[in-house]
Design a protein that fits this description.
binds S-adenosylmethionine, disordered C terminus, binds zinc ion, 8-stranded mixed sheet, single chain, Double Stranded RNA Binding Domain, 9 helices, Rossmann fold
């Protein structure tokens, strides 16, 4: 059966986190993740391994049932294939190349746009038929501008911060006294930190970039970049590379560490939370203290709040809207549905993260945090209720605030979109929306999924940009295609035989 039908709710797919038992087979992206396909009505589902990093089989086709017997020959072929897909140079070699490149005269500094590499003089002839550009000293310090953003939406989704968001993050972290920033999938933040140090106006900050995009390895030294996969906490450079992280996390000189992660938005929350916990655990062990937590900022769409809090309960969602240069659809300052859905989730005390007044944020003294201008405090709920940036309204029958587009429906006994499939049980399942069964027999009833009843992800309402697919709640970054929003579900595009 080819499982590309996201509406098929007769089964669900969950990630089974590694428990230290049998090691998972590896694809070119490190250890694969174990998934469990749970069919309707059955307790135990069939398990299979698939790539942790790629949600499209075109990018990584690894598939293996957990109970498959894999022949020696196939294992060898797999190993050879994995090796052939690794970067052409080691981090050490990239550093040596960078040093040589930096010492070249300006007119010999060339970057091949086709191959996305800095070229040394001896390599020029091999790239003579390719498009290449000159590289100024300023460009060399801004790799995120020089490199073409990976637009592979299903795997890398390289959306780069606007100056507004990057500077807000940087200024906030500096003001909070952090001197070491662990940049997980945030290359632009890392380069701004380095540029800020060059200004010599502030106390210098250290940064370490962990990213799967090894093109960044060309620009950084060994203690500034690790080729890393955040879905399985895999260091492609092995022990030497994870030792770099360990050294960075050590606060021996009193320099406070903070981790900032901006994973691809379609990524599964559970493995991400697991990797981040492992990093936090390493930090804790080094600190030799059990009652402190590594300060974290996880940047992700608001509708993942329940999932993130399930994985990392100490994180709180802030109202700040993070926006991106190369994402035309969501920009700060727009209203209604055009606002960016991306927020900060942090264990830093919300009252300490001062959101810019000039952009319309204000402090709510009751909630003890900064909120967006349209997020009005509701005296009845005793909180600032809005999640999506629009002004929510209180429904006295439901006893809570709801989205502005919702109306109270007498027959459903709750607020919903005016054109919702009305009447519980009359038109399919109220839990997941399927027309094939009723709520009582919903196979997803007890699973940890975003419930349609909640204010987050009613699949009828397009504006929340989320598409709930069985147990895998896949948030999907809507792609602007003309006037319509194309929703990309993921993970279920895996072919399950
Ligand atoms: C949404 S972008 C964030 C970029 C960030 N906003 C910035 O401006 O620096 C996601 C980043 O995560 C990286 N990434 C994607 N998949 C990854 C993975 N499996 N492991 C580590 N990094 C990954 C991408 O290369 C990209 O840099
Ligand atoms: Zn893979
Ligand atoms: Zn080339
Ligand atoms: Zn409030
Ligand atoms: Zn209310
Ligand atoms: Zn209501
Ligand atoms: Zn109704």
């Amino acid at each position: 059966m080819d499982v590309t039908e996201e509406h098929d709710d007769s089964f669900g797919i969950e990630v089974v986190l590694p428990d230290g038992g049998k090691p998972a087979p590896c694809c070119p992206h490190g250890p694969t993740l174990l998934f469990e396909k749970v069919a309707k009505g059955s307790k135990e589902g069939r398990r299979f391994y698939a790539c942790s990093a790629c949600r499209d089989r075109k990018d990584c086709s690894f598939f293996q049932w957990e109970d498959d017997k894999v022949s020696e020959a196939r294992l060898l072929a797999r190993e050879a294939d994995n090796k052939s897909k690794q970067p052409p140079f080691t981090q050490q070699e990239y550093c040596n190349r960078f040093r040589k490149f930096a010492s070249l005269p300006l007119d010999e500094k060339k970057f091949c746009q086709d191959c996305q590499v800095l070229l040394l003089p001896a390599e020029l002839s091999a790239h003579s038929a390719h498009r290449s550009t000159a590289v100024s000293a300023a460009q060399l310090r801004r790799p995120s501008v020089l490199l073409r953003p990976l637009d592979n939406k299903k795997s890398n989704a390289q959306y780069l911060f606007t100056d507004r968001s990057a500077h807000f993050l940087l200024d906030t972290l500096a003001a909070l006294g952090y001197r070491k920033v662990l940049c997980v999938g945030t290359p632009r933040l890392q380069e701004l930190i380095k540029l800020r140090n060059l200004e010599q106006k502030h106390e210098p900050m250290k940064s370490l970039l962990l990213d799967i995009d090894f093109r960044y390895a060309q620009f950084y030294s060994q203690d500034e970049f690790c080729h890393y996969n955040m879905f399985n906490n895999h260091f492609f450079g092995g022990e030497a590379s994870s030792a770099v992280l360990k050294a960075f996390l050590r606060e021996s000189d009193g320099e406070k560490v903070v981790m900032v992660a901006d994973p691809p938005f379609g990524g599964l929350v559970k493995p991400l939370a697991h990797s981040f916990s492992l990093i936090a655990q390493t930090w804790k062990t080094l600190k030799n203290s059990s009652d402190v937590e590594l300060p974290v900022m996880w940047i992700f769409p608001y509708f993942f709040e329940p999932r993130i809090q399930e994985g990392l309960p100490s994180l709180t969602m802030l109202d700040y809207q993070v926006d991106y240069d190369n994402h035309a659809l969501y920009k700060h300052g727009k209203t209604g549905r055009k606002q960016s859905p991306v927020r900060l989730f942090t264990n830093i005390s919300p009252r300490d993260v001062v959101l810019p007044k000039e952009e319309g944020y204000r402090f709510c003294s009751v909630c003890d945090r900064y909120v967006w201008s349209l997020n009005k405090h509701c005296a009845k709920c005793n909180l600032c209720p809005s999640k999506d940036g629009r002004e929510w309204k209180h429904c006295s029958t439901c006893g809570k605030c709801v989205k502005p587009s919702w109306k109270h429906c007498q027959s459903c006994g709750r607020c919903a979109l005016p054109d919702h499939p009305c009447g519980e049980g009359k038109e399919g399942c109220f839990n997941c929306g399927s027309l094939k069964h009723k709520r009582k027999s919903c196979p997803l009833k007890d699973s940890h999924r975003i419930n349609r009843r909640e204010n987050y992800a009613p699949s009828q309402e397009v504006d929340c940009s989320v598409y709930v697919t069985s147990t895998v709640s896949s948030a999907v970054w809507p792609q602007a295609t003309g006037n319509s929003l194309e929703f990309r579900a993921h993970w279920l595009t895996l072919t399950v035989l």
